[in-house]
Amino acid sequence: MKHTQTILFTILFVNTIFISGCFSSRPENIEAFLRPRDVNVVPENYVLQPPDGIEIHCASVPEIHLQRQRIRPDGKVSFEALGEIEVAGKTPIQIAEVLKIKVAELYTVPGENPIDVRVFAYLSKVFYVLGQVSRPGVKDFTGRDTLFTALAEAQPTPLAWEERIQVIRPSGDVNVEPKIFEVNYDRMSAHGEIDKDVLLQEGDIIYVPPTILAAAAMIIEEFIRPIARAFSGAYMLETGPDRTSRYYGGGGGY
Question: Which residues contact 96 (CB under 8 A, 6 or more apart)?
Fold first, then answer.
């Protein structure tokens, strides 16, 4: 028993050091992130790529009104009356201008902005929420996603170390380090301190680490599981089929 306690305390100690050394955030890195209040985050600024989906609103031209199109791998959409149109790399407003020129060749449409293009499927860009959350994984990037809304949607679990959540912006250049800073989600949600609520970009990573005790419990569980399996296997070998009770089907019982 004493030997087992020593092993467990050793695991806890090593895990504490490991967890403490996992954080490489730098507070000044937050300057690489935009604040939602400092930038216009309306969906019109979203740059579309395959396989995003757009919906056309143009009541004057029934042939395209309310049509939905997924952007093809070649970056185009096509309409029976207008033909193929290159849309990848453009914002909804820019696509509307292209459609306006195409439509003007065939129809007379009133108004200064007769065509409205809306995004109905954000599929080409993603960010990630990982760690101790109820809904981890890949998240669709809309161009309007903030750190707080992403965490509220992902829902940190009771095992989450909410005071040390890591926000990571990977670098595409091997010579440039990723930008990483920490945020206290508990203070954001419970006290309204949203000075670190940043605007996310495509490819950003939110990592919600476990608390030290939660991480220790996970490691202890990994340590104990094979031992438990070994004892379980040994017990089954010792009892054997002749020493265990047997179940007979058909309502006959044991």
Answer: 113, 115, 116, 117
Q: In what order do the strands lie in the sheet with 165-169?
A: 137-140, 126-131, 205-208, 165-169, 179-183
Entry pTM = 0.73
Query: What does the DSSP 8-state code read for residue 118?
Result: E
Token pair listed for 235: 């017990």
Q: What is the pLDDT of residues 92-118, one digit of tens each?
A: 999 999 999 999 888 887 778 889 999
The residue segments making up the domain with residue 70 are 47-121
Per-residue pLDDT tens for 15-72?
554 555 566 788 899 998 988 888 776 667 889 999 999 999 998 888 899 999 999 9
Q: Which of 95, 121, 147 is the last residue of a domain?
A: 121
Give CA–CA dist 181/31, Å, rounded: 10
Containing 11, the helix (H) or strand (E) segment is helix 2-21
Residue 221 lies in a domain: no
